[in-house]
Amino acid sequence: MALKRSTVCVHGVDAAFDNTGAISVPIFQSATFEHPGAGKSTGFDYARSKNPNQLALEQIMAKLEGASEAVAMSTGMSAIHVFVSLFKPGDHLITSEDLYGVTRRIFFEICPKYNIEFTAVDTADLDAVKAAVRPNTKGIFIETPTNPTMRVTDISAVAAIAKSIGALTAVDNTFLSPYYQNPIELGADIVIHSGTKYLAGHNDSMSGVFITNDKDIADKARWYAKTYGVTITAFEAWLSVRGLKTLALRMDRCSQSALEIAQFLKTLPNVTEVYYPGLPEHPAYELSKRQARGFGGMVAFKCKDGAVAKKALESVQIWTYAESLGGVESLITCPIYITHLDIPVEEREKRGISDNFLRLSVGIEDAEDLKADLAQALA
């Protein structure tokens, strides 16, 4: 029977490694596993290779993304590291220019040491993507919506460009989660999540997931994860599976509140610009409706000046000034101080990310309380 994604979130584990009838998958807190005989295995040998809780998380994530393979890792950055490991010296990749700061650090500071080169473009501009293609272009990496300016890329169109040159398309799907967006069904080859965010959803665990329909790519990803030692632990995987049970509820609540808050911010005199794909004036509003089932809980906005933004960060009472996103608690941050600190000033300014730019991760609190807190903080 085909299940809706909200049901898969709750009932997506079908592994037969536990026969106790436990409703919650038990925590298999073991570093190693007994072999039933010489040259024989239960499927679990050493926890750095695979553990039962990891398998449970991978089963759910593959189903949610409409894929056949998933590899769960310790963090989202582990999954990014494994992704770039698929390429060899001399390869060239195209990436979204508006990127999470640490992703950019890997692409532009670490990869060049191994002669893997990246070109950053606005991937929402298909002509810019085509213009960046080289004879040695082997991959295109997209964040959509982007962190933090909420740019939206046409996944199907970029995947078509990649396929025409024999390149892989990878999509960081963290902001919308598999409940709202499924890049593989839109033509992407690889999907990456920071499971620390919406998947686990409670700001209390860290994980990453690498998803694909290509078994050869998945096998390579597992080999790199095992070799690097970035496989997810049993407890972190258990927390992620527990968090996924409420993903649909949390995403719908966050998205509903985020739209209300985005509309409310537009009415405040000290707010000059609001970035949210769910606003009809957003340039990718129609595209977002076509390729996703919701707009998500991330909102960004510009204050009149940096002094207003600084006061807001220090005056909020319900919102918490902290990095990360996707949890039940609402968070506010200024990217130039935390998530995008390493990005050169000229690049940040080009994208409008300055000291008056704030990013919100809308949680599940009452939207009226959240709006009232923003009103007093931004007064």
Description:
This protein has two domains: 13-244, Aspartate Aminotransferase, domain 2; 248-377, Aspartate Aminotransferase, domain 1. α2 (52-64) runs parallel beside α9, α3 (76-85) runs parallel beside α4 (101-110) and α10 packs parallel to α14 (367-377). The longest helix is centred in the last third of the chain and has 19 residues, at 247-265. The strands form two sheets. A seven-stranded mixed beta sheet has the order 1-7-6-5-4-2-3, with helices on both faces. The protein has a five-stranded mixed beta sheet with strand order 8-9-12-11-10. With 379 residues, the chain is α/β, with parallel strands linked by helices. The termini are far apart. The protein is globular, with a radius of gyration of 21 Å. The chain has helices spanning 5-11, 52-64, 76-85, 101-110, 126-132, 155-164, 177-180, 215-228, 234-244, 247-265, 285-291, 306-315, 345-350, 367-377, and strands at residues 69-73, 92-96, 117-121, 137-143, 168-172, 190-194, 208-212, 271-275, 298-303, 320-321, 331-333, 357-361. It contains 14 helices and twelve strands. Helix content is 37%, strand content 15%.
